[in-house]
Amino acid sequence: MAEQTEIRIDGKTFKVAKREAILEGMPEWKSSELNVVGKRIARTMGPDNVTGRAKYAYDVYLQGMLYAKVLRSPHAHARIKKIDTSKAEALPGVRGVITYQNTKRKWDDERNILNETVKMAGEEVAVVAAESETTAEDARALIEVEYEVLPAVVDPEKAMQPNAPKLQPYGNVFGGKPQVYNRGDVEKGFAEADIIHEQRYTTAYQQHACMELHGCVAQWERGQFTMWDTNQGIHLSKDLLALKLGLPITKVRVINEHTGGGFGSKTGIYPYHLMVAELAKKTGRPVRLFMDRNEEFVVAMNRPYTVQYYKGGVKRDGTLTALYHRVIGQAGPYKENAIWAARASEDTEEVYHCANVRAEKYHVHNNVQAPRPCRAPGGTENMFTLEQLMDELAEKVGMDPVEFRKKNAARYDQVANKPWGSNGYVQCLETGAKEFGWKTPSPGKPDARKKRGIGCSSVFWHGNQSEQSQAVVIVHPDATAELLAGISGIGVGAETILVQIAAEELGLPMESVRITYGDSQGTPYTLNAAYGSRTTALSGPGVRAAAHDARRQLLKLAAARLRAKPEEVEIREGKAFVKADPKRSIPLREATRRIGRELIIGTGKRPPNLDGYEVDAFGAAFAEVEVDTVTGEVKLLRAVSVHDSGRIINPRTAENQVQGGFIWGVGAALFEDRVLDPHRGIHLNTNFNEYRLPTALDVGDEIKAVFVETDEITNSIGAKALGEPPTTGAGAAIANAVYHAIGIRVRNYPITPARVLEALRRKA
Amino acid sequence: MAEQTEIRIDGKTFKVAKREAILEGMPEWKSSELNVVGKRIARTMGPDNVTGRAKYAYDVYLQGMLYAKVLRSPHAHARIKKIDTSKAEALPGVRGVITYQNTKRKWDDERNILNETVKMAGEEVAVVAAESETTAEDARALIEVEYEVLPAVVDPEKAMQPNAPKLQPYGNVFGGKPQVYNRGDVEKGFAEADIIHEQRYTTAYQQHACMELHGCVAQWERGQFTMWDTNQGIHLSKDLLALKLGLPITKVRVINEHTGGGFGSKTGIYPYHLMVAELAKKTGRPVRLFMDRNEEFVVAMNRPYTVQYYKGGVKRDGTLTALYHRVIGQAGPYKENAIWAARASEDTEEVYHCANVRAEKYHVHNNVQAPRPCRAPGGTENMFTLEQLMDELAEKVGMDPVEFRKKNAARYDQVANKPWGSNGYVQCLETGAKEFGWKTPSPGKPDARKKRGIGCSSVFWHGNQSEQSQAVVIVHPDATAELLAGISGIGVGAETILVQIAAEELGLPMESVRITYGDSQGTPYTLNAAYGSRTTALSGPGVRAAAHDARRQLLKLAAARLRAKPEEVEIREGKAFVKADPKRSIPLREATRRIGRELIIGTGKRPPNLDGYEVDAFGAAFAEVEVDTVTGEVKLLRAVSVHDSGRIINPRTAENQVQGGFIWGVGAALFEDRVLDPHRGIHLNTNFNEYRLPTALDVGDEIKAVFVETDEITNSIGAKALGEPPTTGAGAAIANAVYHAIGIRVRNYPITPARVLEALRRKA
Questions:
Q1: Is 70 exceeded by the pLDDT of residue A653?
Q2: Which of A222, A249, A468 sits opposite B598 (nearest CB)?
Q3: Residue of A nearest to B486 (CA)
Q4: How many A/B residue pairs have CB atoms within 8 Å?
Q5: Would the pLDDT of B446 be above 80?
Q6: Residue A444 scores a pLDDT above 70
Q7: A330 in contact with B at a CB cutoff of 8 Å?
Q8: Distance between CA B203 and CA B654 in Å, rounded?
Q9: Are B528 and A597 in contact (CB under 8 A)?
Q10: For residues A733 and A642, is the Cβ–Cβ distance under 8 A?
């Protein structure tokens, strides 16, 4: 049992463990004493990424490889009455065709990988493997399918109606009822309010739109299954493959050094991975399956469309008394992933200090592709709407929106009833307002065509789970080191910051440490997969612990050479010296070369988060927009995104993350507008001309990243989440700025010119 | 200091350490209790090797890769007066040409990788890199070179004459004088002898003749150098590259999973590796250089030709009183590798109990490609001749050759004055004689055209050096394990027997353990390179130690589940149980699945050999031949090769090793006959039609492998050398059998039809 202490917040007392418990003998890092951590270091893999040297799964072409193509359902719901693959199989060059009839591999308790009944448009009906891509396409066209079209429902609100086709035994609400969170007494809270405000908002579908399309290349050799795969984590994919293929873990190898974008859509595996495995087994050949851009839009999943109802109660002095929130999200036909449909209430529960909160989540089954976590899932949908509501409430009580947020800012985690390991929330609002040059918004000139407005939003991201992470650090006789890390390089810079952490702990310069990653074989679980903005805070402490184990061995070697005790010796920048007499020093390699071929192998693992605390990342976003009242176009002029993400390991890559994350928010708020066939539930504008992503020209002069560095107490490196928080702040900051520009709210995202013009018409 | 004990041999007392010192807490392996070690298990990589699935360096084709071709000296000794590469460089598709003029990279203290003066035919003069192999060849033909031809000497005995061109400041004998070993007083020994016998023998050049030609593919990326290389050890090659390129170890990566034969010729690196590195750097492109078969014969080095003089003294009762041995070998022009020229005296010093021994080794510089260790280097040349001498001495005193050997067999290591960790020498002679059906040879029918004879030879191989070896064993939650081993798969089955050792120690079935190897990145030094028959005895204990570390952790987990103490628990074949009550058992995975993502990581290293002992492998060879007195052809009818190689980890792969090794000896004894240009020192019969290797049809009905298993005390697995010993016994067993068939000795290897006929003419 770790030693405990008490802290008091808001008159409440919390019992928490002392930090020593997670340091396990390591010293606390003091920012002023760090040599590598905290430095602006360019991403080590950057040059490879931009010159095309980096090898992605998409680049893998194996000898004797077959190409696979998928025949997909054109219907939202249908039973396959008859399927005839004989013509396809007879085509020269075709090596295998699988359908639900010849392939019985289970996907989960609910369905096989190929099924007699398809429940969403785009669902796989058959897969062809052939000697060339074009042969596979030709063969696909030769498959004859007769469908019995079944009743389907696309819109989630319609799916909740009693007459809707029932997709699950319990009905269309996942689990048969909404998931409800209750704190205090929301009715009592509304009774105490001076002002009550109710609103409906919607948030939009968003595509992950990865540069690298979904796909993999797979091969069986001597009963071993190897997959080159584009994913967010080799170990998670490996474990799921082992589980679903019924193989021992060591018989499955997943290789993925670089991923061309994932954003949640490449976490784990899809049924298509098992289809490729089946075809590779059936044909005895390596098989390659990659989607094209159309398929990617149709079936690679997405951020779900949500409908959200809010009711807020507030006293005249701005004190929140009650919050009611109902979220309806589209869950797709299957139970898998259904919980990602209407996740958007966690922020309602946590971001503001409020005694009475009720949140109801309706994950609604429909005949549409299932949702999948998409950069800041839930948080984006929640903050995009909650933070419009807060602006509306602030206006109703006549308060400055920043002041309103500061007044109501949560002081501790009200759901877990625990203090935070660090909390820079209010400081972020204050720092951001200052950086942005915030003043209370006032209406723009009434007669101008182009109107400017400013808006703000809180930023919040639920904490890092306390998961296991492990690493290995090998030190060579010339005092260079190798970090074995079980991660994929998904483009977030993990391969850079983990090397920084290892180098810092080892007392070596950055360039003396190499990282080996991207292969499930020979690496420990440093991270099962990169999602939830977890990489730094989960993997970092694991890497530090492994490096520390190596450091202990280094200190012993160096101490022997310096005729001192290990505890009297320090290592810094490749030099070992006696702390009390730094002139007594040697290059570290003088100590290490004596190891010969017995390399120093350090292993370490992340201890669980410090007991008694919750971990959340905070921030604030500020935006200025210009609205063209004739065309309806909204132009983002500038933004400030402020973050408390704990210690910033690498300010340069952190800024990139903030800018990238914020732009995702800009896309969801202003640009990305999926057109869905209302009957067939299929994405229609499946290209980048019609489904527009923001480009560099669309995001204003500057998205300024500002960090309020706190020292997160719950882990040994002091870091928190960073990748996803910026996305959550962009939407409402922009929506609020649009409102302050034109004086009328657009409550349905994305805020397209059409919706702006429609709102202006309503106002007029 | 390890605890000591005493052993007595031949009235002498030796102080030795107790075995506990090298067991480091591990139990002694008892053969009867082993489940995986000692079992006949097929090589796990065999199917890949024979189906073409295995990937060799030769199979590596990288995107944007250039092809390199080497222009070689036609002269044995010459100065480049002028070299003009302009026409070659102007050829479309040529990307770079290097010569001694634009490339100053050092090879060693004696020379650069490219030099103004070339000292052997085939030495590199220029290297071209071009977009295709044919372009590179065309460009090579366009390089204009003007040579000043310098005096050269090819024959080593001629090189020792005073008028020979002097290749080194100290003359042509390496180091300026022979290397001499002296024990007792050889003159006194001869004085005591009743019979003195003197003879001159020669042994032949032998090509390694690897199936996979020498070569590599190299690439620079962001200052990191990666080489796909055909070699006998990734770590040795990596270390040498780092050293010679002046790079940190972590900036060099050597990849080599499968090697298509090495036999000593692929240990470490050659100058061509650095030429490829230079060209890859110069062109900014990956570069591929592989020799063709002609080049392979000319420059990939070989077993040196030796001239050997012996004088043996023996009493009438067969007791050896004195041995004098002079070896002259060709060293090539450079100091590098010179010591491999005339290594063949170690067996003279050690194999027989003899108080008075003198051996003189003349490593003689000449303008011929340098020697390189070739399967059982030294030992082959030594035993091939020493064991003819022993047969001749036995005949002189009228003793059976087996009895003569048994009588004089060494009882301890007379050079080191130490006992052996195990000694099955005499037992091998006895077992072999029995297996073979040995009886004292008597002359065949005088009038038969085809005459049969039998012969025997002792087998001896100097011990494994006591080197460092390290391994890592990872155990997954489903109780499958991964062995990280820094070895290359050179075809000897190491990847199989190391898995056996790990599985045995972990208490897992063979199929639950996977090995990761063939990449210097991410693996420890399990072996720097596979030479000297060291793999099992060096790497095995390192692997066992790592597995034992993992086992300790497994026992702790299992004990907790079984409510017992770790020392009360046993693990066997994937099951953990209480030793005293085996019904209290669980599948091991029940214990391991609780580790989640914190894998069990075991690390371990080989302790130095047990103090006080020497390690040598023993054996005996028996052969029956049929000589066609008309054609001179010698046909091997059958053979028995008996070995004391300590514990046999895998009898099946061990038999393969014995058969393969013996066939090498057959090649050197009967077939492989290099034709050397006596003036230019260049190999002329550079193809497998004219330079004949024995095929399956040439080696008789059966080469029977027999093992006399001893438990070698100096390491934790009880194993000794095996790969090379069989080669040493084949030559003299055959030569002696030829003698007993035809009644006249052929003392120059290979025993070709021409030499047999010549001997028969002499006899007649």
A1: yes
A2: A468
A3: A597
A4: 107
A5: no
A6: no
A7: no
A8: 27
A9: yes
A10: no
Nearest CA in chain A to B607: A598
Distance CA A578, CA A571 (A): 9
B466 touches chain A (CB under 8 A): no
Residues of A in contact with B476 (CB under 8 A): 248-250
Q: Tokens 């022009």, residue?
A: B333
Work out the number of other CB atoms within 10 angstroms of the CB of residue A61: 12
Q: What is the pLDDT of residue B203?
A: 98
Write the single-letter amino acid at A745.
R
Return the CATH number of the domain spanning residue range B302-465+612-763. 3.30.365.10
Q: Which of B295, B482, B614, B724 is catalytic?
A: B724
- Pick from B634, B515, B668, B542: nearest CA to B205: B668
* Cβ distance of B472 and A44 shorter than 8 Å: no
pLDDT band at A463 (very low <50, low <70, confident <90, very high): confident
pLDDT tens for B343-386 read 999 999 999 999 999 999 999 999 999 999 999 999 999 999 99
Phi, psi values for residue A262, rounded to 5°: -140, -60
CATH number assigned to the domain with residue range A66-72+78-150+209-299, chosen from the 4 options 3.30.365.10, 3.30.420.140, 3.30.1360.110, 3.40.50.2000:
3.30.365.10
pLDDT digits (tens, 9 = 90+) for A471-481: 999 999 999 99
A222 contacts B482? CB cut-off 8 A? no
- Checking ipTM against 0.90, whether it exceeds it is yes
> Is-contact A205 A676, C-beta < 8 A?
yes
Predicted pLDDT of residue A666:
98
In contact, B730 and B639? CB cutoff 8 Å: yes
Q: What are the tens digits of pLDDT across the range B124-171?
A: 999 999 999 999 999 999 999 999 999 999 999 999 999 999 999 999
Residue A574, chain B, CB below 8 Å: the answer is: no
Position B709 pLDDT exceeds 70 = yes
Where does A467-605 sit in CATH, by number? 3.30.365.10
**A467-605 matches A302-465+612-763 in CATH topology:** yes
A257, A295, A381, A724: which one is catalytic? A724
Q: What is the pLDDT of residues B9-34, one digit of tens each?
A: 999 999 999 999 999 999 999 999 99
Cα dist from A509 to A37, A536, A552, whole Å: 11, 20, 17
Asked if residue A748 has pLDDT above 60, the reply is yes
Contacts of B152 (CB under 8 A, 6+ apart): B75, B76, B77, B165, B367, B679, B680, B681
Report pLDDT for A453: 96
* CB-CB under 8 Å, B222 with A47: yes
Phi-psi category of residue B560: left, alpha or beta, with phi > 0 → left and psi -120 to 50 → alpha: alpha
Q: With an 8 Å Cβ cutoff, is A254 touching chain B?
A: no
Residue B252 in this model has a pLDDT that exceeds 80: yes
Q: Is B437 on the interface with A (CB under 8 A)?
A: no
Average pLDDT, chain A: 96
Name every chain A residue with its beta carbon within 8 A of the beta carbon of B44: 222
Task: Quote the pLDDT of residue A466.
Answer: 87
Note if A724 is an active site residue. yes
Task: Tell the burial category of A317 from Cβ atoms under 10 Å away from its Cβ (0-12, 13-18, 19+).
Answer: exposed
Q: Where are the domains of chain A?
A: 66-72+78-150+209-299, 302-465+612-763, 467-605
